[in-house]
Structure formats: C-alpha cells, structure tokens
Amino acid sequence: MAAVTVGSHGGVNKGGRWGGALSSGQFWVMANDTVGNDLHFFYSNDSGATWTEDTAAEITDGDADADNASLFIDSNDVLWLIYLDAAADLTLQRGTVSGNAITWTDLGVVSGTSTPDPNSSMPDVVAFAEGANTRVFWAFINDAADLRVRQALYSGSLGAATNEASDDGSYTNLYGLDFNHTGDGKTVQGSAPHVWVAYGDATNLYARKLVWSAGPSWSSGTRRTMSSTTVGDSTLHNGFGFWDGTRFVCGGMQADGDIEVYERDSGDTATTDRTPGTQPTGKATADDHFDGYYNQTTDDIYLLLENTSAQPSYVKYDRADNSWDAAVTVIEAEACLGKSWLRNEAGEISNQLLPLWETSTPAVRTKKSAVSLPTGGGWGMIVL
Q: Which of 91, 144, 380, 382 is the most exposed place for a label (fewest CB within 10 A)?
C-alpha cells in the first residue's frame, strides 16, 4: 500500500508535515538545517533501508526551522511545500518528481510583507483534487497571534487566495490542518471536502470545521473548545490534529507531561474525551517529541513520545476496551534528538510505521543504515 502522511509532525507549536510517499512507494522526507536554515529533501526507494539526498532540490532561502515548514504529498503525487523564507514571508512551492529528483515551481508569497499577515509562522498545507485541478489550503498563526486559514485553486497556476477562516486572539500554536479524506490522507471522502484545523492558546486546545458547500465554498466554522480543565495543566506543550477517516482527532502533551486526546464527530456536534484516566506508565514526564497517529485497520490511536530514558516509544489507545496501554519502547539503541519517523518491525502496528529517526550526530538512522542529514527538530510519523 502506498505511504501517506497522517497527522502533524508534533513538537512545540508545530502543525506541519515532514514527508510522505508517492503512489510508487518512493519515500520523500524533509529536514531543516538549523545552521543555514535551509530545507533538504531525501528519498528512499527501498522502504527506508537506504536514503539519498536530492541536493538539487534544496531550498536555500529559508528561515525554515522546525516550526515553519510543511510538506504534503497529494493523491496525484504532487508535492506542496510551504515555508517561512528569509524575508519572513510564507512561500508556497509545487514540486513534481521525475525519477529521484524534485523540480520545484515557486508559486509565490501567500502571507508576508506584500500580503496581509506578515511574519506568520507554524504553517501547514494540504491539497486535494477538484476535477482536473487541485484545491490547496494552508493555515498559520500570524504575527498578531491570530489564526488564518486560506485556500486557492491551482489550475496550471495558483489562483487568487480566499481567506476562509479568521480567528483573532492570542493563539500560540497551530497543531494540524486536514480535510475529510477516506483515511488515506489524500483522497476526498465522498464529494464534500470539509476542512479541519486544531490550534491553541495559553489555556485551551481548539478545533474548527470549515464546512464545504457546492460552488465550492467553505464556511468559517465555529471554534470548539476541546481541552479539559479537569486534567492537570490544560496548556498543551505540543500537539497534533488529523482526520482519521471517520472523525477529527486532536490533542497533545501538557507542560506537566500529561496527555490529552479528543475526538470531534464528523457532524461537528459532539466531543469525546479520550484522555487517559490514568496516564500511561513509562512515558517521559514532558518532552517536545510528540505526535498522533490513527490505525484504521485496528481502530486504535497511537501517540509517539519519549520514554523515561529519552528513547522513542509509543502509547496506544485501544478503542475496543476504552483503555490506554503502557509506553512501548521501539528503538533502544540510542536516545533520539530531533525528527523521528517510527515503525515497529515486530508488527505491533502492523508494520505501518517506518523506523527512521534523527540523532545529534547528525544522521538518519534505520535498523539497516545511516546517512548524513542536517540537524532539525520535531518528531513525526509516516504511515505506510
């Protein structure tokens, strides 16, 4: 089955994606160089056993730290990249792959000094087919701490952007942007691509559904308060938000290390709290390495996080018996610093997560190989 990206890449304040795969099975991942603030792109043709950088695809005009870039691969194998450039503008690029090489087309500034909302950050981007064209959505937090969600139609060139949602407030985090898909992360579910976003301020986690209608057009939606004030510190230190094919799932890790997870039903009428009544044992009390993933096959939620030894681990919510399992360590060889994609080869997650992580050396590691990679930040998951 082709690989897709599901959910956010986690970490502090982050809502973007780090990569995915083409329908051929070729993987692409993105890493940022914290020295030059450049974006680097690596591919694998053997399910992650070996990795090679496409050096010609490097983006060198970035201020692209872990908060400020997102890479989405759509159902037509097109790459959509949004990032904060050196001029503090959010720039959108469209990438096509031929063989082992990406060709980028610069679609211009979508938020910056020449448009509303300069110095925006924490962007996320998704794209889905609309007939022969592509509808592109992006979300971000602007310099006034307001949420913005915009979209434009790509039909050989990018059309005029429309602002679909504005929420003015003191927002500090964009956790994730997604749309109603079949569960594969790419294909619109039915004929109604509703759009969802998870974001937060210093107090709460919020979800918003932008409802599609024929035309097409999208409503700005209603902000739903998701986080519970009854569970520890409701200020989320890091978080995620994604559509799992049935519902919108969002949550995060509080500053005191407790996990919160919530589900919003497809009709946007009810919230279900999946926060563990007793926090899973074995996880770190707090960390910046955090992401969420839904396994459609088993109907379970997985959260990637550190264990108490700073090793990549996961905890699982079992929907069948409404319980959370203790943390399971996946890689014991070394502590992980920075970005991590995870796959448990023992089969606990049906071999659906790729064992790829970044260390302080820096290097990309799998159980089979290591290749050079610039140091970055944040963790994430690629679903096979």
A: 144
122-137 CB burial, b ≥16 within 10 A, e <16: bbbbbbbbeeeebbbb
d(CA 13, CA 219): 25
Phi, psi dihedrals of residue 84, rounded to the nearest 5°: -85, 120
| Per-residue b or e along 198-216, where b marks 16 or more CB atoms closer than 10 Å to that residue's CB | bbbbeebbbbbbbebeeee
Give how far the C-alpha of residue 265 lies from the chain's centroid of Cα atoms, to the nearest Å. Answer: 20
Of residues 174, 196, 64, 74, the one with CA closest to residue 124 = 174
Nearest to 85 by CA among 67, 104, 61, 106: 61
260, 205 Cβ separation under 8 angstroms:
yes
pLDDT, residue 169, reads: 85
Q: Is residue 64 part of a domain?
A: yes
Residue 366 domain-assigned? no
User: CB-side exposure of 26: number of CA atoms within 13 Å?
Assistant: 18
pLDDT at 285 exceeding the cut of 80: no
Cβ atoms 145, 209 nearer than 8 A? no
> Residue 59 carries which DSSP code?
B
Instruction: Please tell me the predicted confidence (pLDDT) of residue 210.
Output: 98
Question: Do 376 and 40 contact (CB within 8 A), yes or no?
Answer: no
Tens digit of each residue's pLDDT (9 = 90 or more) over 188-234: 999 999 999 999 887 888 999 999 999 999 999 999 999 755 444 55
Q: What is the CATH number of the domain that holds 144?
A: 2.120.10.10
Confidence (pLDDT) at 378:
35
- What is the 8-class DSSP label of residue 280? P
Q: How far apart are alpha carbons 311 and 335 in whole angstroms?
A: 5
| Structural domain count of the chain | 1
Say if 168 falls within a structural domain.
yes
Is residue 344 assigned to a domain?
A: no
Closest by CA position to 185, among listed 381, 330, 333: 381
What SS3 state is found at 324? Answer: strand
Q: Contact, 19 vs 5, CB < 8 A?
A: yes
Instruction: Give me the domain span that covers residue 142.
Output: 19-284
Q: Is the pLDDT of residue 377 over 70?
A: no
